[in-house]
UniProtKB/TrEMBL annotation:
It comes from Emticicia aquatica. SUPFAM superfamilies: Porins. This is Porin.
Amino acid sequence: MKKIILPLIVSVSLYNQAEAQEKKTEEKKVETTASAPAAKPQPVFSTVIGGFVRTDYIWDSRKNAQVRENHLNLYPSDVVKDANGKDLNAVPQSNFLSIVSRINLKITGPDAFGAKTSAFFEGDFFGNTEGTIGLFRLRHANASLDWTKTKLTLGQSWYPQFIPECFPGVANFSTGILFNPFGWVSQAKVTHSLSKTTSFALTVYKDREFGSVSPTGVANEPSVNSVMPTIHGNLQYKNAKVLLGIGAEARSLKPRTSITGGTPAVTIENTGKVNSLSVNAYAKITGKKATLKAYGILGQNITQMVMLGGYVSVASTSNPFQEEYKPTKTNAFWLELMSNDAKVAPALFLGYTVNNGADVAGKAAYARGISLEKRSVKDVVRAAGRIDFKSGKMRFSPELEYTAANWGNADKTGKVSGTLTNVGNVRFLFSTAYTF
């Protein structure tokens, strides 16, 4: 009997000790878990707010072809004399504006379709028209999928001819406008890395912020009437010190869908289109003390990028009631040398653009700076020197700019020849910006 009871007592005792030890262990785990800080959940989205507050004081020696109360000057206005022979456009002007202040959002989120995702949203207060100056204007609104070697961007972003890594850093809000393409469009863009230093981007887009001149006065109608989007390809080489690129574009617009003519007047379908091509090239060399940038474009009908030119209408060879269209040709080039100093950075900008007219005589011109058999712009040259004074997030930039335009009588192609009138404007600008 003792042989049975004694082992039983030992077994019960060992079981109780094991149970007690297990209970202490569980209590210790609970205590440790309770005292440890709770793990913070990782955010699904990350948003960074950026932008700047900017104020510009502007003084011009004469009137200019301009946008938004002279904030953006294109070229000096032609000489217009009164009864006493005085040039009515030789009038100094000035303004004080903060409408280019800007705000943006950079957003990253969870992966989708096996790619990293991001989005960019930006606007300023420049307005879309003279009547909406000071109101919020959409600049960028796009989302991207990045698969490391291939990136897809959908939404409103820069025209593919505008190169964010290589554009004029002038203090003037013009960003080199009239010599450098400018503007944003709704687009689909695929960028593929061919190697560590070389990439190719294919973009299809439709005009949005700016567009070709419409014969009917309806904004962007020539682009909307066209089924095919504009197609642009860009090949780029980039390393730490050198950026090189070349691009080409094919564009087809349908200015109007119907036309009225004849006696008695009848309205019929109009099928005429304006087809155009353009090529651009750019380079940027970054040294220890200075950076050199250069850009050139040979384009047809590039009004949508806020440049000289457009297209002319001609009589149809197959139907006298219809219109056909031919683009005018524009060449533009610019060069900029700027200091890389972190505090005091002087810079010099030089730009030139010329209107070469259309290849055939037209009935009417739909263009910027060009009319048929009337006073038109032949070419424009600009030189601008500035000094950027930088401290922390604050920048002061005084800039002196001289822009000259040759005006003359155009023929039926829009090309200017004969006696020219050279008109020049001096602009002094003092810009301040606080970046956040």
